[in-house]
Amino acid sequence: MKKNSYIIKTHSPEETVEFAHKFSALLKPNDVITLYGDLAAGKTTFTKGVCKYFNADQDATSPTFTLINEYHADLPIFHFDCYRIKHPDEIIMLGFDEYLEKEGVVLIEWPEKIGTHIPEDSIELHLEYIDDKKRRIEIRSPRLMEL
Ligand code: ADP
Ligand code: MG
Q: Nearest C-alpha to atom 27 of ligand 1 is from which residue?
């Protein structure tokens, strides 16, 4: 699937949250956002901005043992952290396919762990650590992003 690419740099966690907030205005029910990037790249920080935009009842956290966090918001938000997944099929056993049909926004940290189960039309975010405060964020989306 052809995806357009867009790159921005942020200079603080607040700026990443702010960017995610702006980005969220373009989201629709059933959109899937895959968040690639190492530990501390800013995946959960980005998710916080999405939660803020949709007025979620709680802030996004990095779940240590929970794989799925569900936030009640203007659109339901399903936040997956797949770090601990050992086999891609584990996500299917957790009802992944049903989450994709709940008319919410789905965010997935460590999408590499679910291999071929990543929906083809997902909006990819590649986050990279540059220095203590700087992050490079590349968006690859099948839709044109106007940010
Ligand atoms: P991940 O979920 O990718 O492991 P987190 O979002 O949990 O990463 O953590 C990112 C860490 O980096 C936080 O401690 C945050 O305060 C810090 N940070 C510093 N600068 C930035 C930035 N520009 N964007 C996002 N996080 C940043
Ligand atoms: Mg995280």
A: 13
Which residues are placed with Cβ below 5 angstroms of ligand 2, an ion?
Answer: 43-44, 62, 109
Q: Give a yes or no: residue 7 inside a domain.
A: no
Distance 5 CA to ligand 2 centre (A): 23
Give the domain extent around 52. Answer: 19-141
Contacts of 56 (CB under 8 A, 6+ apart): 71, 72, 73, 77
Name the domain count of the chain: 1
pTM of the model: 0.96
Percentage of the chain exceeding pLDDT 90: 87
Tell me how far apart the alpha carbons of residues 26 and 143 are, in angstroms, rounded to a whole number. Answer: 10
3-state secondary structure of 20: helix
Q: What is the pLDDT of residues 7-40, one digit of tens each?
A: 999 999 999 999 999 999 999 999 999 999 999 9
Question: What is the C-alpha to C-alpha distance for residues 120 and 125, in angstroms, rounded to an integer?
Answer: 14
